[in-house]
From TrEMBL:
Transmembrane spans: 20-38, 50-73, 79-100, 138-157
Lineage: Bacteria, Candidatus Falkowiibacteriota
Species, as recorded: Candidatus Falkowbacteria bacterium RIFCSPLOWO2_02_FULL_45_15
UniProt entry keywords in alphabetical sequence: Membrane, Transmembrane, Transmembrane helix
This protein's name: Uncharacterized protein
Superkingdom of the organism of origin: Bacteria
Amino acid sequence: MFLTVHSTLGVVIGGYLPNPFTAFLVGLISHYVFDIIPHGDEVKLGKLSLAGMAWAAIIDQAILLLNFMLLAYFKTADVFTPIVIAAVIGAILPDWLMAIHRLSEEWDNRFARALHRLIDPLQNFHYYLHVNLLPYEIPFSLGLILQIIFLAGMWIVI
């Protein structure tokens, strides 16, 4: 799923939980649960070059920020409480770690290799959920429609 969907799910989760720690943990788990659902970008984005991944990430981050601005404008600006922010961080953290994992492959220094080894088991788990747990691939266009439907549903809940 795109970060926009994961982060909006974090907003929903944070609105129902009592403290930031629980919100972060449930947000983190929600990321992995949602990534099990075939959503069309599992293979397509994985084949991009590092520069292509960077552009995809920039676009995803821009849409995420736009989504947050629209939520604050149309829903309520005080939707972003510390609990909600913790849930959002948990919900997007696995994709940020995936980016660090991918970038650390390109760096040639001791710190990058250690970081890569540290993140590697989590990234393998993340990849397994994305691609292997339900080895069913849907077209990118259908996945995009599915993610828009999820996003609209979460907007209704918020």
